[in-house]
Design goal:
MetI-like fold; 2 domains; 13 helices; flat
């Protein structure tokens, strides 16, 4: 091969230009990130004090007070969103990665989950508003959906406990007996779920309507589900199939293989996905504008409109009072620190897992 100095110089010049542009783009992105963080810190540190966390808002135009109602409301909404969204996302991800592995259904759900991750949150808010907040004629659809979901969760827990008791008391070794036992447990679980729905629907349906904290939690859970689903699916797909085959060779059932082999091997990545999904919804405002709305007073009742930190920041930033602006900056700083803390924790978990 003939050495061509001119060709080598052109290669080096092109490489230097590409490296310079990449470095410039990286520093440009870091500059704006640092500028935003510095600006939030500079304005928000002024309003950080104990009264911000321990006192309720003062009347408009009067300095003082705090945002206790917004902090408590935000924590409650995010907590219940996690309770609703994480189990659904985990179960769906496990089903797609294990039971439906390689099928068209699994690929379709994965594609739809990727689409849902990128859907604007305001679209999710309007969707939840249409099915939970706004009544459909004389039917409280939101209440029926909420009670149905609660009944399903209770029935699943009942079925799991019943299955555990049956497996502990009766040592089932026959395949036919195992099938009969599974059919019986499934039938009792469905009947129990229907019974719970009939009991709760007469007591809870009319309480879940209009703007309330539950609809806000559901809207955030709707955003969390595809994130948890895709993370769980990806992490379980990375677990070598040979590990499952080794467990099968020892006589383990598929349920025990998933519980003791697959999930245990992928638990760090799954946990990281859950933490990132919480960080994803912690700063959302648009869905809560259409669902939990807002409340100027302190409340822990999820059946009525509830204040949230993000909506309060939006309202205070748009307000005419300087004291509101200071509190909005302080609340924005608190949310930024919270999300930054969650992100650092998730990165630390990943680093610890690969280091160990």
């Amino acid at each position: 091969m003939i050495y061509n100095p001119a060709y080598v110089r052109r290669r080096k010049v092109k490489s230097l230009i590409a490296l310079s542009l990449s470095t410039l783009a990286a520093f440009l992105g870091l500059f704006w990130l640092g500028f935003i963080l510095f600006d939030v810190l500079r304005h928000g540190i002024e309003g950080i004090n104990l009264s911000l966390f321990l006192e309720d808002p003062a009347p408009p135009g009067i300095p003082g007070g705090g945002l206790r109602n917004a902090f408590v409301g935000q924590l409650l909404i995010v907590f219940y969103a996690t309770i609703i969204g994480v189990p659904v996302g985990l179960l769906a991800g496990i089903f797609i990665a294990e039971y439906a592995r390689g099928t068209k259904f699994a690929r379709t759900v994965s594609i739809l989950s990727d689409i849902m991750v990128s859907v604007p949150s305001i679209v999710v808010g309007t969707f939840i508003y249409a099915i939970l907040v706004q009544p459909v004629g004389s039917i409280n659809l939101g209440g029926l959906i909420a009670v149905g979901f609660l009944s399903a969760i209770v029935a699943i827990i009942f079925g799991a406990i019943l299955s555990f008791i049956v497996n502990r008391i009766f040592k089932i070794t026959s395949e036919i007996a195992g099938k009969i036992s599974n059919i019986t447990i499934s039938t009792l679980t469905v009947l129990f779920g229907i019974f719970v729905f009939l009991i709760l629907s007469s007591k809870l349906v009319d309480k879940v309507q209009g703007f309330n904290g539950w609809s806000g939690a559901v809207s955030l859970a709707f955003i969390m589900i595809p994130v948890v689903l895709r993370t769980t699916e990806d992490m379980l797909s990375l677990v070598p199939w040979t590990l499952r085959e080794a467990a099968f060779a020892l006589g383990a059932s598929y349920y025990k293989v998933i519980k003791d082999i697959s999930i245990r091997a992928a638990i760090t990545g799954i946990l990281t996905g859950i933490i990132l999904s919480i960080a994803r919804v912690a700063g959302e405002t648009a869905p809560l504008l259409f669902t939990s709305f807002n409340n100027s007073y302190f409340t822990t009742n999820m059946n009525e409109p509830m204040s949230s930190l993000t909506v309060t920041i939006f309202n205070y930033a748009m307000g005419p009072y300087e004291d509101w602006h200071i509190k909005a900056w302080a609340a924005a700083l608190v949310i930024t620190i919270f999300i930054l803390f969650i992100t650092i924790v998730s990165r630390a978990i990943i680093s610890w897992r690969y280091r160990s």
